[in-house]
From TrEMBL, chains C, D:
Chain ranges of the ABC transporter domain: 5-265
Organism: Chitiniphilus eburneus
Keyword Membrane: yes
GO molecular function, one term: ATP binding
Protein name in the entry: ATP-binding cassette domain-containing protein
UniProt entry keywords in alphabetical sequence: ATP-binding, Cell membrane, Membrane, Nucleotide-binding
InterPro entries the UniProt entry points to: AAA+_ATPase, ABC_osmolyte_uptake_ATP-bind, ABC_transporter-like_ATP-bd, ABC_transporter-like_CS, P-loop_NTPase
Amino acid sequence: MDFFVPLDLREPINQAVDSLVVRYGDRLHVLNDLILQGLLLPLERALRGAPPWVILLVVALLAWRATRRWQVALPLTVACYLIGCFGLWDALMQTLALVLVATVLAVVAGLPLGIVAAHSRRLRAVVLPVLDVMQTLPTFVYLIPAVMLFGLGKVPAILATVVYAICPLVRLTDLGLRQVDPDVQEAAHSFGTTRWQMLLGVQLPLAWPSILAGVNQTVMMALSMVVVASMIGARGLGEEVLAGIQTLDVGRGLQAGLAIVLLAVAIDRITQGFGRVRRPIRDEERRS
Amino acid sequence: MDFFVPLDLREPINQAVDSLVVRYGDRLHVLNDLILQGLLLPLERALRGAPPWVILLVVALLAWRATRRWQVALPLTVACYLIGCFGLWDALMQTLALVLVATVLAVVAGLPLGIVAAHSRRLRAVVLPVLDVMQTLPTFVYLIPAVMLFGLGKVPAILATVVYAICPLVRLTDLGLRQVDPDVQEAAHSFGTTRWQMLLGVQLPLAWPSILAGVNQTVMMALSMVVVASMIGARGLGEEVLAGIQTLDVGRGLQAGLAIVLLAVAIDRITQGFGRVRRPIRDEERRS
Amino acid sequence: MSARIELRHVSKVYGDDPHRALTLLAQGADKHQVLADTGSHVGLYDVSLSIPAGGIYAIMGLSGSGKSTLVRHINRLIDPSAGQVLVDGEDVLGFSAARLRDLRRRRISMVFQHFGLLPHRTVLENVAFGRRVRGESRRNAQAAAQGWLARVGLSGHERDYPDHLSGGMRQRVGLARALASDTDILLMDEPFSALDPLLRDDLQSQLLTLQAELGKTIVFITHDVEEAFRLGQRIALLRDGRLVQEGEPAAVRAAPVDDYVARFVARVSGADVPRSTGSAPG
Amino acid sequence: MSARIELRHVSKVYGDDPHRALTLLAQGADKHQVLADTGSHVGLYDVSLSIPAGGIYAIMGLSGSGKSTLVRHINRLIDPSAGQVLVDGEDVLGFSAARLRDLRRRRISMVFQHFGLLPHRTVLENVAFGRRVRGESRRNAQAAAQGWLARVGLSGHERDYPDHLSGGMRQRVGLARALASDTDILLMDEPFSALDPLLRDDLQSQLLTLQAELGKTIVFITHDVEEAFRLGQRIALLRDGRLVQEGEPAAVRAAPVDDYVARFVARVSGADVPRSTGSAPG
Amino acid sequence: TSPWCQSGKPVKVAGLNWESGELLTELVATVLEQGYGCRVERVPSNTITIENALAQNDIQLVAEEWVGRSEIWNKAAAAGKVKAVGNVIVGATEGWYVPEYVVKGEKTRKIRPAAPQLQAVSDLPKYKQLFRDNEEPDKGRFLNCPSGWTCEGVNSQKLKAYGLTDSYVNFRPGSGAALDAAVASAYQRGQPVLFYYWSPTALMGKYRFIQLTEPAYNEACFKTLTDRNQAKPCGSAAPEAVIQAGVSRVFHDADPVLIDFLGKFNVPLPLLNAALAGMANNPGSAAVQSRRFFATRPDIWRAWVPDDVAQRIAARNTGK
Ligand SMILES: Nc1ncnc2c1ncn2[C@@H]1O[C@H](COP(=O)(O)OP(=O)(O)OP(=O)(O)O)[C@@H](O)[C@H]1O
Ligand SMILES: Nc1ncnc2c1ncn2[C@@H]1O[C@H](COP(=O)(O)OP(=O)(O)OP(=O)(O)O)[C@@H](O)[C@H]1O
Ligand SMILES: [Mg+2]
Ligand SMILES: [Mg+2]
């Protein structure tokens, strides 16, 4: 096509990646080691080492504390037990460790980012396009360079998961904060609140439903990355799915896939339960 | 582990899938053909057949109409031109056709679902868990059976994309509708609005920011599925990315990946621009 | 004179377990005890009253005594915990959704204490809302709305949005919106509370004229005793969700049933309240 | 008596291009013309007034005349488009964020026309909010809040949430919240508008006592002319964003500058307004 | 004059996306289009989906099929839904590799040989510290095939057979791309790495690897390796790989003419390796390599097809 002046960035990019690998690869591999030994492996060891009934008990207690409804807590616990019956307990624990770390990191980083975006128009103009890139640049495109830089395994998997899963939380925190009633904020201002008091005492509580929706999406996305993570060598349920697919054993894939879904539901219900404010926001009757 | 009673669903599932394929495979293949011939191919042909400058012009006009700011419209158009320069124009058009169809389907189905979920507690109790499954069940797990049922190609790719991308829209529509000020709804009620008038005249407009955030996430997710789609035979940018990755040609993958990002940004900015209400919601000054 | 609106032993308890609260109330507990014991708020308890057709019916009472709760029962924005509500002799609680809608569209309109304006619509669109809802053309509805905006002194603000208005201006939009609906029954919950005295005088007169000319039935909540005596052809006094006294203003002033009522009406200086009596055809 | 609060040529235009509007106004246009020409709302134009220390200063005026806009300038919730605002002789527009915060925490508190309650906090927490913000312990703050809740008649409702309250109850929560802050300067934007006459009487007396005992400076917006004359040691009248007349009630009544003011003050029946004069130490 | 193409139906060809696959697909497609006047559609996908689609006749042709390497293929072949024809590549290899510098060192990058004695898989236990796995630091890491590939099972059995389960982690990278990335990264950084690999591949052409020796191929032993449940497998090198063209049964039965061509279709290994190396330096140029091949090596491709067909191909390729 004559209309387009031909351009090609492939070679420069490849050379840049190569030289990055040669120059920083070793150091980043060491970093990988540190994160692994310091954070992920101990957690994983604890989860895999504990007797299953202890874990099941913890799940039941957490679910009950979070929701106060045994109609939620009981099925969740039974479902986890069933995963064990499918012979996937060990894989479940590995995936749990990975997803927990990734979700915690995503929330810890995403909430402040969302707050920053809501408070400064200029920063929002920077943050939102970066999120666009993070969410739509195909995971593989940065996963492969990540593998070259960090080595195979869990650490690049976690990084990729965080990059992908953080986006909805940032966006929904931003949205929620910007929808807080300005009259209420004005009243709080009139008492001389610091930014901090305003944020913690007024804005975050009122934006809470949106933020919780963001956390829900983050959990969902972190779990939807489990299979991708196992494509670069993270073990666990994702590997089972992959193996099932590679051999066209739909049953094996689906069984492991359902376990992932269950894990997602469990994490989601528990986080949402802890996040939810108990009081009904408004008397329902009025809305006849 | 003795603690778990061993269970295995693999065989029954596999048999079920097989018998489904045998029984309905042919009919669904025909359906596939129909959707292809009736919807996707004409669109794709039109997009690929049109001279690039026409498409660029349309993009520029749409972006300008949507945002009224040439600071947005101009860079978007230039970026599309650059994708052409990278030699990816044809792939871009193929992906565009796919993503357009998937996004439109997701919005057309997702908005009503969200509305239904917001209005009926019972239906929400059904819809939300289904969304959990749709979003976290690894795509591959249902992609393979889908291929067996529908055949290889664009139609199952679109189905998978819709299944995945619809979720945030449903959730955010539900959230937005449930946050509408009950005082305002009560006032509208007092004039004898029908459900329909209430929905169109009061609830949807007031929930609009949340719904737009949902549309944004849907667009983002549809584009993040492009690579997966090309794993089952949809051509376009995803294929380029895959090929780049398989041959460890990071540059090739990244170049195509960036094109996907750009497409995402363009679709997002245009939809958000058309969706945005022009009037500033509240005088900014009050929030000193 | 026939009763246009009738409440029969209406009680309303806000909360999870109205029956427990009602039992307590029947045993003689008052709303503060009920709140302390059950956590439920008593809105109304055992209120019966009948509002005659054609005329202004004023409702007064302490803050929190259940006035807003009471009027909301008339167009059934609230369902009572117990009791019956009759409009033109028909029990609105038995209405189908369609009949209820029709009642709200053509026969009853309401001014809300908290205005309840639609924030995403202009002032003009807000005022035209009631007519648009019942299917009138945009042109007709807006023409009518325009007229009412002028009468409440808001010409020139047609294209503003509610959040650009002052408190009193918002209240007038809510007022114009109800009036523009042109229904026979008007429920007005403190419609003039945020208005300056000049405007209030003017609107009071307009309301009297309107009522006299068109024979509308108006239920009017106010805290201003003078206003109640000036406008009301009958007056009801609520306290803690119960009806304390009800009757013609003169009668109430002449014979207050208790000290509470006496203190209320003591504030009206005898003669200076002009009245346009003469009840319209029922 | 020294001026506690002073506004110097303050103008406020809501809109994108205040300068164009100000130019028009300087050429003699009024706010309706400015709205029609530029789409900007004029809140205030060229208002200068000085509010003496210790005393109640009443502000009146038609709906939309700029009263709420005016008081918001005093604690700088709004920055003026032109002019200066002085509190205790210092220009608040020059304050750093920290000093402004200190001003709002310890020296000025405000009652909002639309209440501005925090919907996610209980009544008690709402009232304690001001003290909590400036760092008092929860215990102390809630004890003080409890006391003020009792004084506005809301004991027993400590643990309710605002959306379970009636309009007048909400207004009292906002009132208690401002009073509980115990600042020298109180800005009150129609604080009694939703209250019944008995409660209003009671609260007016409390306010007078409070002012007399503690020498607070109170800026009080009201539509009730009797209230203004009963409470105000000085009165200012606004119209369309401009200051029309300002002075002692007696002086204003004796010599209204124009027909508008005359019509306003005509509504007060001469003698029956009790006053507790005697201005406190400035 | 192929009956399939004459009937107007397009030939759907798997759009393989690894280097050799890309090139071979390009060659086949060129012959079909230019020689037989067929309409060729390339359908991109991953291996499993491709094999599955072939079994359903959703696509008709896979230019490079590692016969017998996947369960799907095996099942489909057993059911008679797919057929393998010809010998597309002869002499493909597979096995366990380390980079050459691990044994011999490399002067230009000043890498000293880290394991000069390493020759056979039996030497590996001594070197487990060299190939340390950071997730289980007291073991070495062996990079296996991606999970689910047939070779993954074989290698897992081999680890048992060679007594390496205590000293090495059986690390499954999850995808071919991840394996490639890990190997390439280690090579560029001059780090030791132990992995399973095969040829013809671009990586093999680009870097210098040494294959570790294994016990010679033994059919009985190899059977124990392909059975995952075999507790005590015995060691054996892999048999020579069979790489053929895969076609769907329907296509196979419908078009003897094209099947005849595919039966003769073969590219000599050295030539293929040279082309792959060329592609590695000039990415994405399978089409370029293909055109060069048809322009310069009629000696090879003329043997694939009858003269009239060859004539037509030549006519399209000499002009350029
Ligand atoms: N946020 C705003 N944006 C735009 N215009 C505003 C805003 N707030 C107030 N105005 C305009 O400023 C003018 C004065 O408003 P203000 O609220 O000060 O009136 P007010 O005297 O308090 O009236 P009321 O007695 O009705 O409360 C009005 O014309 C109003 O439309
Ligand atoms: N949505 C609600 N949920 C719970 N309690 C409510 C609700 N609305 C009103 N109440 C309670 O019902 C009682 C009566 O309220 P209502 O609003 O009818 O009073 P009112 O007479 O209109 O008072 P005001 O003059 O202050 O507006 C109050 O005690 C209030 O706390
Ligand atoms: Mg009320
Ligand atoms: Mg005001």
